[in-house]
Design goal:
There is one protein chain. With 371 residues, this protein is of the alpha+beta class. Helix content is 22%, strand content 26%. The strands form six sheets. It has a four-stranded mixed β-sheet. It has a three-stranded mixed β-sheet with strand order 1-9-8. The longest helix is centred in the first third of the chain and has 17 residues. It starts with 6 loop residues before the first helix and ends in a 20-residue tail after the last helix. About 7% of the residues have low confidence.
Length: 371
């Protein structure tokens, strides 16, 4: 077990430090670590240690008792596990100066927030693009309609815990060289609530909730993407003791499209263009995301040319506007020509002065690729 930090080390002073030296060290560290100045969690915990160490070492009587015992072992042979154990011996389990580290007395509330639920839904590509209505089948905890959530059989009610007397805490006396120290722990019978259910509800066995199947409507907004998560407030498990219900988080899975590749709100696709259309120019009709579109092909268009159809992509989620559709034109080179087709291409080559014989090479010229 690691040694517990010495209170003098926490303040950064020697054991022979004067009261003024201890005070100056505390003020310096307090200015540096105070939550109003340094908002980090580490600084807050360090500030609590510094404040507790100063509260002990600045008091002559407490300092004398601390010096006599030291910081290496606890009372009656029970070793200290952390600095808080030392503070408990001087200030009790409730903490010091408002810095109790969470060890406070009192009952715990029976009102608990309901747990969140998670589900998933699969959508077609167009359903995700333009939105859809879904009915989700889930199982969730609901308030027991027999006991109305208090966990007790109708006609009865929770009573003060017989183990802790309704305080929610069990107190234990510890003796040390510093004197008697009272410590408190949550009561295991009532879980710190101070209330015990003697006659538990037969329907929910005292839970106050029971699981039931439910159908939750989900309106999927237009433009959702695969991997997104939607939140339905209050559709999770019911809270306990009248607490608010949790939320339902729905993971979205979108089936891929055969024709489109989605990148953000934009769509990308490839269109095969016949060679005559590339040479002569023309119009090609395609099936867009939601309606038929026309692509204009200029004469002499090269393979790889990208045509942008503005506003024909995926709608933006929860706001106006749509992405764009980018169509890459791919020139289809004909193969397996008939005799008549081959004769036409040979005639075309002769007219272009490019030759038509496979044996006679034509003159080629290299050029640097476009950047």
């Amino acid at each position: 077990m690691a040694a517990v930090r010495d209170l003098y080390d926490i303040l950064g002073v020697g054991r022979d430090a004067s009261e003024d030296e201890i005070k100056r060290a505390y003020r310096r560290l307090a200015r540096e670590l105070h939550p109003d100045v340094n908002g980090s969690t580490e600084a807050e915990e360090r500030f609590k240690e510094v404040a507790g160490a100063y509260e002990i070492l600045s008091d002559p009587e407490k300092r004398q008792r601390y010096d006599a015992f030291g910081a290496t072992g606890g009372p009656q042979g029970s070793p200290f596990t952390d600095v808080q154990d030392i503070f408990d011996l001087f200030f009790g389990a409730g903490g010091f100066g408002g810095f109790g580290g969470g060890r406070t007395r009192g009952t715990r509330s029976r009102v608990w927030h309901g747990e969140d639920l998670r589900a998933s839904v699969s959508l077609g590509f167009k359903e995700a693009a333009f939105g859809s209505h879904q009915e989700l089948r889930i199982e969730r905890a609901v308030v027991c309609d027999r006991c109305l959530g208090n966990g007790a059989e109708p006609g009865t009610a929770p009573v003060a815990c017989r183990t802790c007397g309704g305080t929610g805490q069990l107190q234990q006396m510890r003796r040390s060289i510093f004197g008697a120290v009272m410590t408190s722990t949550p009561c295991p019978t009532c879980d710190g609530t101070g209330q015990e259910i003697l006659d538990r509800c037969e329907a929910c066995r005292g839970e106050g909730r029971r699981r039931e199947p439910a159908t939750v409507p989900l309106d999927v907004p237009a433009g959702v993407a695969d991997g997104m998560e939607l939140r339905i407030a209050g559709a999770g498990h019911a809270g306990r003791g009248g607490g608010p219900a949790g939320d339902l988080y729905v993971a979205i899975h979108v089936e891929p499209s055969v024709a489109f590749d989605r990148r953000g709100q934009d769509l990308f696709t490839v269109l095969d263009v016949p060679l005559p259309t590339v040479v002569l120019g023309g119009e090609i009709e395609i099936e867009g995301l939601d309606e038929r579109e026309r692509i204009h092909v200029e004469p002499g268009t090269e393979s790889g040319t990208i045509v942008r159809l503005k506003g024909k992509g995926i709608p933006n989620v929860n706001r106006r506007g749509r992405g764009d559709l980018y169509v890459t034109l791919h020139v289809v080179t004909p193969t397996h020509l008939s005799k008549e087709e081959r004769a036409l291409f040979e005639r075309f080559a002769d007219l272009r002065g490019q030759g038509s014989s496979r044996r006679d090479p034509i003159e080629g010229e290299l050029r640097r690729p476009a950047e």
